[in-house]
Design brief:
CATH architecture: 3-Layer(aba) Sandwich
Number of domains: 1
CATH topology: Rossmann fold
Helix content: 25-40%
Distance between the termini: 27 Å
Strand content: 5-15%
Radius of gyration: 14 Å
Largest sheet: 4 strands, parallel
Order of helices and strands: EHEHHEEH
Number of strands: 4
Number of helices: 4
Length: 138
């Protein structure tokens, strides 16, 4: 068991928003938070525009692959953040749930993904504050 808070980001394809959020949380927490991401219907690969947008921030997500959402992943997480997956996300008592309304970056170029990325970064910083974790480098 770990004392670290754990966060699961869930979207439908686990190819854009949840991947960017997980990468930001892992990067900004400096390893102080256990990070997971998954999708209810995972895509074949991470959105190339999301990869490019994160690379601009110095965060490499090229090795990430979309993962299927499992009940275990939800059970093992303290905080579950959904991003447009609707009713497909399992709900367990005692978990903290947040729903982040964000545009889907699917099919968009990197110019259109940047504002989504920046909003995710802002929300991840708020999440770190709520978990009482100081962002790495601050």
């Amino acid at each position: 068991m770990t004392d670290k808070p754990s966060v699961l980001f869930v979207c439908i394809h686990n190819a854009g928003r949840s991947q960017m959020a997980a990468a930001y949380l892992a990067h900004l927490s400096g390893g102080a938070v256990e990070v997971r991401s998954a999708g209810s219907a995972p895509a074949d690969q991470v959105n190339p525009s999301a990869v490019a947008a994160m690379a601009e921030e110095g965060i490499d997500i090229t090795a990430e692959t979309p993962k299927v959402l499992t009940t275990e992943a939800v059970k093992e997480s303290d905080v579950v953040i959904t991003m447009g997956c609707g009713d497909t996300c399992p709900i367990f008592p005692g978990k903290r749930y947040e729903d982040w309304e964000l545009d889907d970056p699917a099919g968009k170029g990197v110019e259109s993904v940047r504002p989504i990325r920046d909003e995710i970064r802002r929300r991840v910083l708020d999440l770190l504050a709520s978990l009482d974790v100081t962002p790495a480098g601050h």
